[in-house]
Amino acid sequence: MSTVALMWEARAAEGRGPELLAWARAQGAEGEPLRREVFRAPQDRVLVVTWWETEDGLAADLPELPAPPAELIGRPVHRWRFESVEAVPGR
């Protein structure tokens, strides 16, 4: 069993940052991830990270967030997959 993190990042069209953030927060993933976090960053960027347990590692068929409506984004969505190799507990 391994843990895979799916990362989804988009940059909002000019002046549409709050709308893009609201859209991303409203998206539900098929299935139940172990964890889901939504981040915002300068230049109206939005990042969503979901963590999944899987037998197939990076090759797993996992639900990806869709692309938002074209009018909300200033460039295509970026997506990455990472497989956990170490987890260190926090404080």
Which terms summarize this structure?
4 strands, 91 residues, Alpha-Beta Plaits, mainly beta, 11% helix, elongated
Can I get a quick summary?
Helices cover 11% and strands 36% of the residues.
The biggest beta sheet is recorded as: 4 strands, antiparallel
- Report strand order across the widest sheet: 2-3-1-4
Number of helices: 1
Helix content: 10-25%
- Strand content of the residues, in percent? 35-45%
Number of discrete domains: 1
Q: What form results from the Cα inertia axes?
A: elongated
Based on helices, strands and strand pairing, what is the structural class?
mainly beta
CATH architecture: 2-Layer Sandwich
Stretches where pLDDT falls below 50 for ≥5 residues?
Answer: none
For the residues shown, what is the average pLDDT? 94
Question: Care to count the β-strands?
Answer: 4
CATH class: Alpha Beta
Q: Determine the N-to-C terminus distance.
A: 25 Å
Oligomer state equals single chain
- H/E series: EHEEE
Cα Rg: 14 Å
CATH topology: Alpha-Beta Plaits
Q: Overview of this structure, please?
A:
The protein has 91 residues and is mostly beta strands. It has a single domain, classed as Alpha-Beta Plaits, CATH 3.30.70. Helix content is 11%, strand content 36%. It has 1 helix and 4 strands. The protein has a 4-stranded antiparallel β-sheet with strand order 2-3-1-4, covered by helices on one side. The longest helix is centred in the N-terminal third of the chain and has 10 residues. It is elongated and about 40 Å long. The two termini are 25 Å apart. 15% of the residues are buried.
